[in-house]
Here is the input.
Amino acid sequence: MTRKRFLILAALGCVIGIAAALGGAAPGVQAAPAPQDATPTPEPVAITTDRQCLQCHTAPDQVMTLASGETLYLTIDDDAYEASLHGQEDVQCLDCHADITAYPHSAVTAQTLRQVTIQKSAACAQCHEEQATDQHDSIHQAELDKGNEDAATCADCHNPHYTRPPSEPRSKIAATCARCHSGIAQDYRDSVHGESLINDDNPDVPSCIDCHGVHNITDPRTAEFLLNSPRLCADCHADPVKMRPYDLNTDVLNTFVADFHGTTYVLFEQKSPDQLPNTPLCIDCHGIHNIKSVTDEESTVIKANLLTTCQKCHPGATANFSDAWLSHYTPSPQHNPLVFYVDLFYTLFVPGVLGGMALIVVTDAGRRIYTRLKSLGKGAAK
Amino acid sequence: MSANTTYERFHLYQRIEHAILIVSFTTLAVTGLPQKYMQYDISRTLISLMGGIEMTRQIHHVAAVVLMLQTVYHLAAVGYRVLVKRVRLTMLPGLKDLNDALTHLLYNIGLRKHMPQGGRYTYAEKAEYWALLWGTVVMIITGFMMWNPIATASLFPGQFIPAAKAAHGAEAVLAVLAIILWHFYSVHIQRFNKAMFTGKISEHEMLEEHPLELADLKAGAALPDDPARIKKRQQIYYPAAAVLSAVLLFGVYAFVTFEQTALDTIERGEIQEAFNPLTPTPIPTLRPTPTPYPLEPVWERNIGLLMQIRCGECHDGSTAGLDLNTYNTIMEGSENGPVIIPGDPDGSPLVQKMLLPHPGKLTDFELSVLKDWIAAGAPRR
Here is the structure.
């Protein structure tokens, strides 16, 4: 049978199936054959081609009930499959479902839907080795290894039968993560980054994976991740090209590092890369997933809200306290004039004092050397 | 007097004070400047060697406390010498010192015949002493502001704190460079002056550097005061100095313990529960299907396609001699005989087979369509 012919047949099969599903002629759900209940036991039939699989699995309402009582849906939409990335690449059912070698199938060992997803995801590594290796280093895999079956594996994010390019459109990424991380995703959607991505499909703003990575998502609660977070922010916010359309200050990292907090962060990290310093990083003032624009009245760092933000760590802080932070400005007569003029005073005062001293020291040394040479000369003349 | 005559220049207590100052000043510089210049590798290496930034700051704070205690002692000691022993105020600067500095410069470049004549403290020594005192006061005030920013901001604008930081750092640079340039040159390079370690100075050195002091001494200016009067002054000074020192020491204590600026531990990072799944749990689900149309019970385009899709893959003549792909072959049946008995769906082996375990399965609807077709006599079209 040619492939084309098969496709036509499959399509027609679907039509029939569809007709069946809503035709009402026989609406009952037909459970997948359960060999152990079968009498008499049929002769196993070797399954070697996709077409064999699809003879049953394109039928609608192909379901089985797992030990947990959950329903596992076994119907494949062949059209949609053919249109998917896997379908386009001619990936065959048995490439992934290699455990199915015959009909009746071997018994399903998964007790729950989660276990089905986790078991089946093991097959992905055959072709996607790099991604699988990355995933094995991830917090998700670490949680799975600990026995936490809620943690995501391949098929949770990538539906293997109807795979589309996973990041098109980019806003889909947040929706994918939101399936498990809905609270955080809501914060993100309300943030300056998320709003811009979802409403304007802005390619500049970060989606989840730009900060967290894709397959090798590490635990973002570790000191290592948090200590690196200012660099994540700076990747965009210290880049003049990326920030040009937004007219944002790109001196944010430099000014942070020049301040007490940032200095502490840099020096602490260098000595103790596995511990968190008792000093704020970008996220501690600006927020994480819920970062607002500094033009937003909910922003944690605008003047009206800054003291409250300071008080997270400095509970005794009073009204003037937040002005001690230079707001990422380099001191100038307009911004932080007192600091600017103190700097200016010392810029003049230090060389002035040292210059006066140097004048006397240098001339004194010259005079002494001159006198010494002169007396030596006299001694030699005698 | 012989050439070996020496004079006491610095009392033992002063020399101890100087030694402590060397330690505290150097410690402050070594722990402080790398913080100011943290962008350089050498600074980071130094801080690392000192045990990290937090340890470096601890050491800096301890050295600062030593310097402050020493300052309290110094004030008490100077007070004693001035108020009780009534020593001459030889450290007070005056117009002569400005003039001496100018004369020194002019002498160096050959415009004066003689060096200025120094008293007990030359203009260079006075400059250094008062610079140190000024610097220490600036460092203590700005240091307090940085150590206690909340208290500072409750009295002054918040900007005082970064301004204090700027002044503290710049003043430190000035102090260290002045020590290297002025102090080291004057007492180590120009001539290695051991007076601060031995406490003594020779008559020759006196004549060279402090001729006016020597003349005063020879004129009897340094004769001790009447012991009885000293004792009387002591009785007043000691309690007064004790009270004042206690106040200052309390000040140092307050300086260190004034406020707890920041909490030691705060809740960091995302505080939302990470796992917060949407419901229903995302799993492959049955997709909605469009409205169907009725199937006519005829082979062509209907039952034939159903058979091809559901059964024809295996039953292409190779399995049980049955080929379900064409009308003729299905009607021929298998090696065991016919599979379709037109008009008798329940009696047809094909329908019976579907009620038994069999690899391929028809849905209930498909089976009912098949039975309708057989019941209708299994027509081709």
In short: Chain A has 20 helices and five strands. Strands of chain A lie at 30-31, 45-46, 62-65, 71-73, 102-103. Chain A touches chain B through 114 residues (CB under 8 Å). The first strand of chain A starts at residue 30 and ends at 31.
